[in-house]
Each structure stands twice: as C-alpha cells, then as structure tokens.
Amino acid sequence: MIGRCRAVDCVGVYDLPRMPKSDIVVDTDRGRAYFERTIGADKEFLISNSPLHLAERIKVPVFLAAGGLDWRAPKIHSVVMRKALKRADNPPEWILLPEEGHGFYRLKVNVEYYQRLLAFLDKGTRQ
After folding, report:
1. Which tens digits make up the pLDDT trace of 108-118?
2. What are the DSSP E strand ranges found in the chain?
C-alpha cells in the first residue's frame, strides 16, 4: 500500500525553531505565550519534532507548495524542506507561487496549483 501513499502540504511550517522568527503573531507577548503553550519553548524539542529534521524518515512522494509572499510560513520553510528531502533521496514535487501569500487567491494561480496537485496525486493511482 505504501506505493500509492503520497504526502501533500501547502504553505507549511517545517522548521519549528524558525517559526517564532518569521511569524508576525509571535512578535507579541500574547503570540509568544500561545506559541510556547501550544508548540513548546524547548529548542531541542522543537528541532527534534520539526519535519525538516525528520526528512529521512519520509518514504512517500511529497508535494510542497509555497507562496512567495507568505509572512506566516515564509517560503524559506519550503525551500529548506525541499533541500532536506533531496538530501534524503526523496526529491519532492514543488511549486512556488511568487505572488501569493499564506493561501492562494488568484484564479490563474489556483488553476496552476490544482493541475499540478492533481497530476501528482494521479501518479499514485497508476502504481
């Protein structure tokens, strides 16, 4: 069954220690408290639980999508995850939508995104 499994993530956070440095919400006392309460404050815990540092354990094909203007999960998260997956000999399908943010809103962009996503998912049904 693993041959048909696939992983898809859109505007994801893959490096938890980087998140408080990039997310505008964490710039407030309340935002930091929420982050620490829900995700944690221990740097070693954040590192060991970040998808970025678990890439070698991911054995299924991966599709990553990022918005170039995303301030909540900046594209650097997808860039470093893509590199980690390549190093783990599992290069992902990747789409960077340079004019989009944390979500895709333009019709043309959505058509491109969903066409690429459906083609990726379709590969899993033909195995």
Report:
1. 999 999 999 99
2. 7-10, 62-67, 93-97
- 3 state SS of 67: strand
Residue type, 55: A
| Secondary structure element (H or E) that encloses residue 103, with its range | none
Are 73 and 102 in contact, with CB atoms under 8 Å apart?
yes
pLDDT single digits (tens) 83-94:
999 999 999 999
Question: CA separation (Å) from 91 to 40, 54, 79?
Answer: 30, 14, 12
**Maximum distance among all Cα pairs of the chain, rounded to whole angstroms:** 50
Decide if 6 contacts 124 (C-beta within 8 A): yes
pTM of the model: 0.85
Phi, psi (5° rounding) for residue 40?
A: 125, 165
* CA 92 from centroid of its chain's CA atoms: 11
Tokens matching residue 118: 């459906």
Q: Please state, in angstroms and rounded to a whole number, the distance separating the CA atoms of residues 121 and 91.
A: 15
